[in-house]
Amino acid sequence: MIEIFQLIGNQWRKITSFLLLITLCGGFSSFAIPPTYEAKIDLLINNPTKDEGSTVLETYEIDMNLRLIETYKYILKSDRMMANVNAEFNKPYTNGELMEKIKIVSTNESQILTIIANEKSQKQAALLVNTYAATFQKEIKDLMHLENIKVLKEVSAEKDTRKVKPNHAYYFILSFVCGLLLCVTIVIAREVYFTKMDSVVKTERATGMTNLGTIPFMDKILLSQMHNDGPQGSLFTNGNLPDFIIEEYRRLRENIEFMLKGRGIKTIMITSSSPGDGKSTISSNLAMIMAMNGKKTIYIDADLRKSTGRTLFNLPKRKGLTSAIAGHETFESIIQATEIENLSFISAGPQPLNPTKFLSSARMKELLEQLAKKFDVIIIDSPPLLVVDAVTLSSIVDGCLFVIDAKSTKEELAMKSLAQLTKVNAPLLGTVLNRTDPANSNTYY
Ligand SMILES: Nc1ncnc2c1ncn2[C@@H]1O[C@H](COP(=O)(O)OP(=O)(O)OP(=O)(O)O)[C@@H](O)[C@H]1O
Ligand SMILES: [Mg+2]
Questions:
Q1: What is the pLDDT of residues 10-28, one digit of tens each?
Q2: Considering only CA atoms, which of 152, 97, 106 is closest in space to residue 130?
Q3: Distance from residue 222's CA to the centre of ligand 1 (Å)
Q4: Average pLDDT for residues 244-267, to the nearest whole number?
Q5: How far apart, in whole angstroms, are the C-alpha atoms of residue 189 and residue 191?
Q6: d(C-alpha 335, C-alpha 131), whole Å
Q7: Which residue has its alpha carbon closest to ligand 1 atom 4?
Q8: Is residue 279 within 6 Å of ligand 1 at its C-beta?
Q9: Which end of the chain, C or N, has fewer beta carbons within 10 A?
Q10: Atom of ligand 1 nearest to the CA of 219
């Protein structure tokens, strides 16, 4: 329940505008509804058996009176009565219409029968109710030879009718309530069926894993600074980026280091459910931040199908991972130095026909073991879990970081991907939430 209020609270601007629109549309559309006027006529039913001069009503007389009123009510709604009423009009009603337009009301405590008519104009309402009453008097005279019905007051179209529909306030309130229900339904439906993993709370609750960092969404200006300035291409080394982004990477690094302390974990792969979630951006910047913190770090571009590491580090196209695994190169020869102190790099190398086979090979395992002797941290940028390469790789690394794109990753897909990793007993370390709202970037901490 609290979460529903939170969800509504998060989108209150949209919800308020939508609600206002629905309320105004619904309320004002009621002005297009043709009005309905009500006219009432009271009939006094005199007791036909009452003795002249007697002032006291006997019990049987009361009983009879009640029965008489019930009989009159029945006659008032009978087909015969309606046919007689219709005979008075040039444009007759159908029985169904009359049934709808006429209502008969009485109480046990009085001898009054009230005929209520609803019509589109005051004039029509008054005419219908007056005609009904006069026809009824005639009808009772014919049928029962009684003249005991008195019309208390003939209805005047101007003075005795009132507008009953539409009640504009009712339509405004109704539209507001319907709008509110619709908003709550939409918010809940969106949450249930299209749940985006867009907050730390949601990711932790759904995955059951610790969130190790949140990387804010960078707009086009920030990204263009990243891509154009400085020798390091897409890395944050030019100093022009706002502190809040650098700060989030530092936090990520600290959380990872805190987690790895004393656990002998050196090889970390970064993966996600789908392409474009930010694996390469996060892994390369994480490697850089770790190197800058004095850790001897190597970044491996293991996305053999769509390598980007080389461009991220602005390094020339050279032999890489696949050349060494295929045995064409030594492990030593594929390690490239970068312009960042303590940071080395292994590019993906020429694209093989079967990347999965390469990544699961004994030589790949051997390479990681050798690198672990030389480096403090090995960061592996991997493909998304849509392809089996990442699943294969996850079984030979010490830890897996799972990137979630706050703008697009759906809970269902993330859980499916994670299930693939848990199936092979991948050492899951935690999640990194990418493209979070910069305005909320620090709230979790
Ligand atoms: N936090 C962010 N804010 C804005 N843009 C981002 C962010 N993180 C990554 N991007 C951009 O999204 C695009 C895809 O990012 P990246 O290449 O890192 O994703 P990926 O998961 O490695 O994709 P692939 O699976 O295709 O290798 C890049 O253009 C990158 O600059
Ligand atoms: Mg990538």
A1: 778 888 999 999 999 999 9
A2: 152
A3: 13
A4: 87
A5: 5
A6: 104
A7: 218
A8: yes
A9: N
A10: 4
Q: Do the beta carbons of residue 385 and residue 391 sit within 8 Å? A: yes
38: which 2 tokens? Answer: 């009500």
User: What letter would DSSP give residue 32?
Assistant: G
Please give the torsion angle defined by the CA atoms of residues 320, 321, 324 and 329, in that order, rounded to the nearest 10 degrees.
10
Residue 236 has phi, psi (to 5 degrees) of -90, 60
Distance 120 CA to ligand 1 centre (A): 66
Q: What is the pLDDT of residues 376-431, one digit of tens each?
A: 999 999 999 988 889 989 989 999 999 999 998 988 889 999 999 999 999 999 99
**Dist CA 252 CA 331 (whole Å):** 29
How many angstroms does the Cα of residue 283 sit away from the middle of ligand 1? 10
Please indicate whether residue 393, judged by its CB atom, sits closer than 6 Å to ligand 1.
no
Please say whether the beta carbons of 381 and 301 come within 8 A. yes
Can you tell me the distance from the alpha carbon of 374 to that of 40, in angstroms, rounded to the nearest whole number?
A: 100
Cα 83 to chain centroid, rounded: 56
- In DSSP terms, 214 is beta-bridged to 433
Of the candidates 287, 289, 278, the residue with the CA atom closest to the CA atom of residue 241? 289
Residues in the chain: 445
Sheet holding 428-436, edge to edge: 211-216, 428-436, 399-405, 267-272, 377-381, 297-301, 343-346, 336-337
- Nearest-CA residue for ligand 1 atom 23 is 276
In terms of Cα–Cα distance, which of 319, 333, 382 is closest to 355? 382
Ligand 2 centroid, distance to 323 Cα (angstroms): 20
User: Per the structure block, which two tokens stand in for 27?
Assistant: 């309320």
**What are residue 205's DSSP bridge partners?**
none
* Ordered domains of the chain (ranges, CATH): 2-32+168-189 (no CATH), 36-165 (3.30.1890), 197-440 (3.40.50.300)
Rounding to the nearest 10 degrees, give the CA dihedral for residues 400, 405, 409, 415: 20
- Give the mean pLDDT of the chain: 86
Res. 306: pLDDT tops 90: no
User: What residues have CB less than 8 Å from 44, skipping those under 6 apart?
Assistant: 111, 112, 149, 150, 152
**For residue 380, with 0-12 CB atoms within 10 Å meaning exposed, 13-18 middle and 19 or more buried, which class applies?**
buried
* Residue type present at position 99: M
